[in-house]
Amino acid sequence: MKHVLVLGAGRVAPPLVRYLLALPDVHVTVCDARHDAPSALVGGHPRGRAVELSIQDADRLIELIREHELVVSLLPAPLHPHVAELCVRHRRHLVTTSYVGAAMRELDGPACNAGVVLLNEAGLDPGLDHMSAMRVVDDVRRRGGSVVSFRSYCGGLPAPEANDNPWGYKFSWSPRGVCTAGKNGAVFLRERARVEIPPSDLFLARARVPVTGVPGWPELEGYPNRDSLSYIDTYGLEGVETMFRGTLRYPGWCETMKAVVDLGLLDESPATVEPGLTLAGWLARASRADGAARLREHVARVASAAVIERFEWLGLFSDEPVPPLPQPTTTLDVLAARMEQKMAYRAGERDMVVMVHRFIARWPDGREERITSTLTQFGEPGGDSAMARTVGLPAAIAVRLILDGGFRAPGVHIPVTPSLYEPILAELGAVGVRFDEVTS
């Protein structure tokens, strides 16, 4: 019997846990600080165990890691390096769905010495973006060509029929994480020119992106996603002329978030919210307005009428109380808490995941070929969200590959090699998670 430890029982965990419990030779232990969450996932399965665990309980965490041969960390990304260090120390493999940061990268040598696989970025974005891109890139190389332009976009959104609020967005994962991502700058390559976007201008660098498979929406809105240049080496695209990775949203998101940024609503400095503070009072304080009476006038200096309507819908001009939060808190936490109150999926609503890659391949004779690879997935009403399936299932399949010996290269990895992406994409395709490729 193979033993897998899953740390975290949040929104993307159910498909992963269900997949692993369906493997006849795998026992799964699910841990979470919330008592009921692991039990709900395991559901009394004979090869499952639910454990209440605080990540601060170092001795118990070590004990659990030692009892299992592979750990899946679905914890917040900053906690992954600590878990990875413990996995290396006790010679246990690790799978995460988060970006490789500097602290994780430093564990490559120790992991190699210990014979331990630390596989990261094994979800959707990052994850399926790498796998689907590398499948096309490697195919072009096999046919004697080279990729000279790569543009990629991904977004998790409400399905069109659930897109019923002025913001054009609902949360299938942490609102705080979505907001925090809006504080990043971006850098990419456009026709051999390096383009740097400062954090304050991120949402100005938006463009309309044609998509397929989204009823009623032939175009979405895209904006840059962090550092695209680092993926030139990752994908082996030396000499590429355009390299861009972006995020997809419904039109209107970028102008709204630009106003959020300009008003200082993503500030993470400690702040105290006294009892009785209204949302209008909070917005006036956070945006440094000259009193609540002139709040709309103040907001209108940086926001269009459409954005003010979205703020109105969210209740930011209202006398409603600020959502309860531990004190002290931050401005960003207040915004995220209010978003979670108003922008959650209702029972029976579907989410949607859209990923679009656009390649230009060039051949030695100068001929060019355009390749578009698209993934469109919808959640199941009352069942798994599209986000949960496209994050959890790739990670689960990666776990199986490692357990079965299909991938055992030690060190820090992401899924850009055929030994990983081919079996994962093939198995996902068999259950309907597939990319449609069109060449012109």
Protein traits:
Rossmann fold; 16 helices; seven-stranded parallel beta sheet; 440 residues; alpha/beta
Give a written overview of the molecule.
- By secondary structure, this protein is α/β, with parallel strands linked by helices.
- Helices cover 34% and strands 24% of the residues.
- Helix 1 runs parallel beside helix 15, helix 8 (175-181) packs across helix 14 and helix 15 packs across helix 16.
- The protein is globular.
- The model has no long low-confidence stretch (mean pLDDT 95).
Which helices and strands occur, and which strands form pairs?
Elements lengths: L1 E6 L5 H9 L4 E7 L3 H7 L5 E5 L5 H10 L2 E4 L6 H10 L3 E4 L5 H4 L2 H7 L2 E3 L8 H15 L3 E13 L16 H7 L4 E5 L2 E5 L9 E4 L8 E6 L5 H5 L7 E8 L3 H10 L7 E2 L7 H8 L8 H6 L4 H10 L14 E2 H12 L8 E12 L5 E11 L7 H18 L7 E3 L4 H13 L5 E4 L1
Parallel strand pairs: 1-2, 1-4, 2-3, 4-5, 5-6, 6-17, 7-12
Antiparallel strand pairs: 7-15, 8-9, 10-11, 11-12, 13-14, 15-16, 16-18
